[in-house]
């Protein structure tokens, strides 16, 4: 058992008969009344996000997890196949467990958190950004913009991303995996 002082981003806890991962937290000490911790929790079984407030000193049940590096091999319908880079063991995860499955390119390394009690994969952490090639986009026309104009583009994984007008087919772009937005041309 741990207390609210041990709360940090990425910590996995048992709460309301489910396993949640702490996405955000904020320790609040109001001028009047006791301190508390405001958290944003993401369910690792169904992906739902909820806000919860713990009073200071509240006991929380921590789930022991191990993090391993896995390489994405291929997808088959809603099943995504990964291989452990150390033991070469393969696992299959459902599309719902992944945060940004449309941005996952074959050969990409991801971090998978595994529950040590049940050996079940809990969550998949993508790299902060990924470089993908633009496979289709409309040509940008000069002079029809005021500022910061974008156009839709399709990348090699099939995801649609809004990009600036100067991006053409064949260009490689860096995409933020958390938001799915264009960052820069590579």
Descriptive account of the structure:
The chain has 186 residues and is mainly beta. The chain contains no helices and 16 strands. It has strands at residues 2-3, 12-15, 18-28, 36-43, 49-55, 59-62, 65-76, 79-84, 90-94, 109-115, 121-125, 129-137, 150-155, 160-164, 172-176, 181-185. A six-stranded antiparallel beta sheet has the order 1-6-2-3-4-5, with no helix packed on it. A hairpin with a 4-residue loop joins β13 (150-155) and β14. The protein starts with a strand and ends with a strand. The mean pLDDT is 88. Pfam families: EFP, EFP_N, Elong-fact-P_C. GO terms for molecular function: translation elongation factor activity. Its main location: cytoplasm.
Give the topology.
Blueprint: E1 2-3, E2 12-15, E3 18-28, E4 36-43, E5 49-55, E6 59-62, E7 65-76, E8 79-84, E9 90-94, E10 109-115, E11 121-125, E12 129-137, E13 150-155, E14 160-164, E15 172-176, E16 181-185
Antiparallel strand pairs: 1-6, 2-3, 2-6, 3-4, 4-5, 7-8, 7-10, 8-9, 10-11, 12-13, 12-15, 13-14, 15-16
Q: Which percent bin holds the helix content?
A: under 10%
Question: Main beta sheet, described?
Answer: 6 strands, antiparallel
* Secondary structure: number of strands: 16
What Rg, in angstroms, do the CA atoms define? 20 Å
Strand order of the largest sheet: 1-6-2-3-4-5
Please report which band the strand proportion falls in: under 5%, 5-15%, 15-25%, 25-35%, 35-45% or over 45%: over 45%
Structural class by helix and strand composition: mainly beta
In DSSP terms (H or I, runs of 4 or more residues), the helix count works out at: 0
Envelope shape? flat
Parts with pLDDT < 50 across at least 5 consecutive residues: none
Order of helices and strands: EEEEEEEEEEEEEEEE
Distance between the termini: 46 Å
Taking all residues together, what is the mean pLDDT?
88
């Amino acid at each position: 058992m741990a207390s609210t002082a041990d709360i940090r981003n990425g910590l996995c806890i048992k709460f309301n008969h489910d396993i949640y991962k702490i996405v955000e937290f904020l320790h609040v000490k109001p001028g009047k009344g006791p301190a508390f911790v405001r958290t944003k929790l993401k369910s690792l079984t169904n992906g739902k996000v909820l806000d919860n407030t713990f009073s200071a000193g509240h006991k929380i049940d921590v789930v022991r997890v191990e993090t391993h590096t896995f390489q994405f091999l291929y997808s088959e319908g809603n099943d995504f196949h990964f291989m452990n880079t150390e033991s070469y063991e393969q696992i299959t995860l459902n599309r719902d467990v992944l945060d940004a499955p449309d941005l996952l390119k074959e050969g990409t390394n991801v971090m998978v958190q595994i529950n040590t009690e049940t050996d079940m994969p809990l969550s998949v952490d993508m790299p902060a950004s990924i470089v993908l090639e633009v496979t289709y986009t409309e040509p940008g026309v000069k002079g029809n913009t005021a500022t910061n104009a974008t156009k839709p583009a399709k990348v090699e994984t099939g995801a649609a991303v809004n990009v600036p007008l100067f991006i053409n087919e064949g260009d490689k772009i860096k995409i933020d995996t958390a938001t799915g937005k264009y960052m820069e041309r590579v």
